[in-house]
TrEMBL record:
GO terms for molecular function: RNA nuclease activity. InterPro entries: LabA (IPR047140), NYN (IPR021139). CDD domains: PIN_LabA. It comes from Roseivivax marinus. Residues 7-165 form the NYN domain. This is NYN domain-containing protein.
């Protein structure tokens, strides 16, 4: 489903990809992920979207964000918003859908193929719009978790669905200990 001469761009919904990999029991090795898609085509950009807790002295995702930034990923971040729900629980909200959508639409005239790492059904209209502009769209997520991490309408709209579990041997590494597993939990 990939052609060596096509111009690729990766759009990674950080919290969604983290949750999907966690549900499958492995961590993503982002160096291997980038290498895999450089091998599949002419990669122009690899975007990674995540919200950050700005008020904490230390954010568990900060080392990943810094590593990605220094290793060829275009980082798109914004401050996460904290609130207390109706049961008095502290919650964190950090949706990056609009930022991802705007970047994809702006880049569409210069790319042939978008690889979207998200199962969020809210991206179905984006995929449809990119396709109308002649851009092929592959979506990476999983149907093998319980419940499935990909919305059925997004999977059906995509030109190609890539099962994340089938990439495990290529881009995965065993999960680290539990203290390191909270890296993207702030965005889930």
């Amino acid at each position: 489903m990939f052609y060596k001469d096509e111009r690729l761009a990766l759009f990674i919904d950080g919290s969604n990809l983290y949750a999907a990999a966690k549900a499958l029991g492995f961590d993503i090795d982002y160096k291997l992920l980038r290498q895999e898609f450089v091998r599949r085509g002419k990669m122009l950009r690899a975007f990674y979207y995540t919200a950050l807790l700005e008020n904490d002295d230390y954010s568990p995702i900060r080392p990943l964000v810094d590593w990605l930034h220094y290793n060829g990923f275009t980082m798109v971040t914004k401050p996460a918003k904290e609130y207390t729900d109706s049961q008095g629980r502290r919650k964190v909200k950090g949706n990056m859908d609009i930022e991802l959508t705007v970047d994809a639409m702006e880049l569409a005239p210069r790319i042939d193929h978008v690889v979207l790492f998200s199962g969020d059904g809210d991206f179905r209209p984006l995929v449809e719009s990119l396709q109308r502009q002649g851009v092929r769209v592959s979506v990476v997520s999983t149907i093998r978790s319980q419940p499935p991490m990909i919305a059925d309408e997004l999977r059906r709209q995509a030109d190609n669905f890539i099962e994340l579990d089938e990439l495990r041997e290529v881009i995965g590494r065993p999960p680290r200990d539990q203290s390191d597993r909270n890296v993207e939990a702030v965005n889930s």
